[in-house]
Amino acid sequence: MTGPPLLETRGLTMRFGGVTAVAGADFTLGPGELRCLIGPNGAGKSTFFKCLTGQLRPTEGEILFDGESLVGEEPHSIARRGISIKTQVPSLFDGLSVAENLRLAAARTRNRAETRAAVDEIVGLVGLADRADSIASQLPHGQRQWLELGLVLACDPRLMLLDEPTAGMTKQEVARTAGIIREIGRDRAMIVVEHDMQFIQMIAHRVTVFHQGRILAEDTMDNILADEQVRDVYLGKQAGAGRERSDA
Amino acid sequence: MSRNALGLWTMGVLSLVLVFGVPAIVETFALIDFTLFIAMAILSLSLAFVWGFGGILCFGQSAFFGLGAYTYAVAVINMGESTVPILLGILLPVILALVLGYFMFYGRVSDVYLAVITLAVSLVFYYLIGASAGEEYKIGSARLGGYNGMPSVPPINVPGNPSAAVEYEALYVPAAVLLAVVYFGLRALLASDFGRVLVSIRENEARTELLGYDARRIKTVALAIGAGIAGLSGVLFCAWGAYVSPTVFSLVFTAQIIMWILVGGLGTLTGAILGCVLIQYLATWLGETKIADVNIVLGAIFVAIVLLVPSGFVPMFARLGDTLMRRRGEAGS
Questions:
Q1: Residue B217 Cα, gap to closest chain A Cα (Å)
Q2: Mean pLDDT, 10 residues at a time, chain B of 333 residues
Q3: Minimal C-alpha gap between B209 and chain A (Å)
Q4: CA B242, CA B42: separation in Å to the nearest integer?
Q5: Which residues of chain B make contact with A94, given a CB cutoff of 8 A?
Q6: Cα–Cα distances in Å, from A197 out to A193, A212, A235?
Q7: Whole-complex ipTM
Q8: Per 3-state DSSP, what percentage of chain B is helix, strand, and coil (rounded to 5)?
Q9: Which residues of A52-74 are buried (b: 16+ CB within 10 A; e: fewer)?
């Protein structure tokens, strides 16, 4: 890797009573890099994200973003430093319209004219231009996911964390989401948690495998798929299933 | 015309009627009653803002109201001129709210405990002031008087001229103007960026924080704004009756403010005014005619409204109006 990393965790650990959700994760992400995070349910991926965004305070370990420690910072100040997250279950302002949702996200760093321009641009980018006045709670699930993607984007972050951005989507929606992510990933770093192997193959260069709170492997998608150890803990069935679907 | 603009014009005309029309038609005696309703409507607005838009269930709004009233009483007795005491009556509740807000919001106290803490603060004032009956409890020349309260509080005067008192029916117009200023001020605040973020915190606090807004700071400021308005209302109340007693901190009184808002409709400003005036008027009328016990009737009404019109009157009428408009639109097309 060239240059200093954008994000680095050292021995990151998060315990809940007797359960260790993240157990000493050493993770490094370069500037502008797009990384996929995979692993079985309960591997600690979402907890890892919550530590990065300040929603949880890690029990041990260090998080460095652009060389500065994030441990103990409040969620809003981490967001201000340029880390923005799409949560696993879309977290939106359900009573507000699509445009109002985006306006709230965009307005913190922009004046009124800039906010309007940003909302117009993003609403098109995430494919909701014709739904701009719809109330968020009335959107179908796939569009709710896109709207949250738009909220994250409206913060103009340097690092985007996307927790299962294609969960509950149809095949066409997944393909479209991959398109959106490739588009917005051109000029910013991104970590994507996913289960859908086909989707990962559409977007990822490097993949990190989480298992029992630790990083098990980190490599290109092809090498990961070939890795015996990874197949054992997680991929075996799913990778086969993914192949079959792509053959069909 | 949009519903928002229509509402704004309606309220504009209504406030002109309230300030200029009402004093011309209504008798002096009724005008004095109306002044009290207005002071209470300002209090109702303060909680409507904090609870209905900030999502902060402040069960002790009366603490800020009472503190404003007592601050005014003590200060005006000592100073003899009302301008500074009025400002202090607003400032002290604001400071109390900033301190309380700091501990509650920065300490991430959950909503239920927040209601309990604010209620407890109000009751602490109730017993504290109640225990101040002795000669020795005085601030400057102002005796606190325990449960007997503080009588003969000087009225508000024209700023800089202590001999020009604004009392009895003359207090009506300034009070009505203040009500309009508070109402339109809150509307403007809610339409601003601050107001939008405040409502977004009510809708989804975690998401608002992840967008980079400091919910703790914004909620503390909202509580302080509500406290200042409640303090102003307390000042008016105290100056109106020339009297204040610890009942302003009582459980019955603080619960009543919540009732006004539920009757009018949580999440609306007009509802807070309407609910307050309706209940106050009814209570006064029942008290004068002695048809039935005030508390029993109010209790029954409260139960009926929570069961039958849980969203309150103003949202109900708004929905009714929308339906009628749609029907007419369909019939016309």
A1: 11
A2: 82 92 90 95 98 94 98 96 96 98 94 94 96 92 94 93 88 96 97 95 95 96 98 97 96 92 93 94 89 87 88 86 81 57
A3: 5
A4: 18
A5: 203-204
A6: 11, 20, 9
A7: 0.88
A8: 75, 5, 20
A9: bbbbbebeebebbbbeeebeebe
B208 occurs within a structural domain: yes
Q: Note whether A153 and A122 are within 8 A (CB).
A: yes
Asked whether the predicted pLDDT for residue A8 surpasses 90, the reply is yes
Q: Is residue B290 part of a domain?
A: no
Domain count, chain B: 1
**Distance from C-alpha of B189 to C-alpha of B192, rounded to nearest angstrom:** 5
Query: Which 3-state string (H, E, C) describes B181-209?
Result: HHHHHHHHHHHCHHHHHHHHHHHCHHHHH
Residue B295 lies in a domain: no
Is position B309 within any domain? no
Which residue is listed with tokens 């949580």? B266
- Using CA coordinates, name the residue in chain A closest to B216: A76
**What pLDDT does B331 receive?**
66
Which among B206, B214, B215 has the least Cβ separation from residue A91? B206
Facing residue for A155 by CB, picked from B203, B204, B212: B212
* pLDDT (0 to 100) of residue A246: 39
pTM assigned to the model: 0.90
Per-residue tokens: B22: 């009402």
The domain of B219 spans 3-250
